[in-house]
Design goal:
The complex is a heterodimer of chains A (130) and B (345). Chain A is mainly β and 130 residues long. Chain A contains two helices and eight strands. Chain B is 34% helix and 25% strand. In chain B, a hairpin with an 8-residue loop joins strand 9 and strand 10. The chains are: A mainly beta (130), B alpha/beta (345).
Chain lengths: 130, 345
Amino acid sequence: MASTAKFWREQAARYNLEGTRCVNCGAFFYPPRIVCPRCRRNGVIERYKFKGTGEIITYTTVYQAPRNLNRQMPYALAIIKLDEGPRLLSEVICDPEELSTGMRVRSVFRRIGEEGEQGIIYYGTKFVPA
Amino acid sequence: MIGIVSYGVYVPLYRIRVEEIAKQWGENGASIKAGLMVEAKSVPDLDEDAATMAVEAARAAILRASLNPRDIGAIYVGAESHPYAVKPTATIVAAAIDASNSITAADFEFACKAGTAAIQTCMGLVSMGEIRYGLAIGSDTSQASPGDALEYTAAAGSAAFVIGQDRVVAEIEDYASFTTDTPDFWRRDMQKYPSHSGRFTGEPAYFRHTIAATEALLEKTGLQPADFDFAVFHQPNGKFPLKAAKSLGFSSAQVKPGLLVPYIGNTYSAASLIGLAAVLDKASPSQRILLTSFGSGAGSDSFAFRVTDRIEEVQDKARKVEHFIRSKKYLDYAAYAKHQGKIRM
């Protein structure tokens, strides 16, 4: 799990699916990019908050979890294509057997980890069936 | 006119039936279910807590009235199950709704009435003209010691209310509070589970405070029970609110639309507020709503709301309470114990 400071720096992206887009070419970026790889110096980057809806491209079920996710086994991980275009990897909260490719999902706010019982709790975005 | 500008609720998907809990402890499930008038209670998912639920309710409130979160000037979150002992839940909510940094925020604790105390605080700031909107939230993943009577009802849920003076959907006509030092329910520092005084939680605690605050409100406003279309009371079980209502002169028909405890249990700080939200979901303009919360320790806040014409514009813009009542998956006791962190790994 990320360090407290690293996680804090990524808070807007993790909490609110905040990324960026290039006003010049219309491309969306998540996680946020500060330079448009297509337009380079002609790119105009601005903050963009994704709507949080999308569809499952592919998925897997995790039966061997890191220690802090033991209680959640088995759980589903999916590559989700946001409606604006970018793809991201996220946990999808549902019975893994309910999953299918092309399934519509929406974002929710959940705990995504913690640094042990005394450490920081990490919050962020996961997805549920829409 | 100060009032509710918007509202949102959240109840987790999972439930456990009262009979399933009773079975573990050799109790008579049917008798407990009838005695409490509770069929099942909500259970948080493994990755949910009072903060995540508060965020979901707050986002629903913002969506419902198409608010700009940057117009919110104060965020108060009431809970008895804040995820951190020190590190405000309100800061997490503020970040997760993309609120401005130039806001005041704090966490409240007053057992099951911390949410209505948050509403009162927002009313003060709004009426002073210090803020445009205040966000008041009641959110809890309540805990009960395994085998304790509270385990049958201690549930999870959240309700968020935006308080302001413009775009009001329900005017707050007036309020009254009643507070004493009554040790009916408490949790000492570092203790995982709360303790309570058994039957003492009834007459000297719930009924005394609920009735005194409501009577004070009726006296202050000159209103009669018959002047209200709905009456919502804190609902630790199904029987208490109906009994309090009856002794105050309210009918069960006024209470039942906001009585959710039979389906989701006692959601603590959110309990009376989810009841209020359920009533707002179906209220018509100019109807009047009574809300009386109760928090152990002990105190009650009683409010008179008058629904405005604007209610119809917002009712269908976010998930209604009915949606959360219908969406459910039942757990057995072992899965519930895992969800509630009752099993140490």
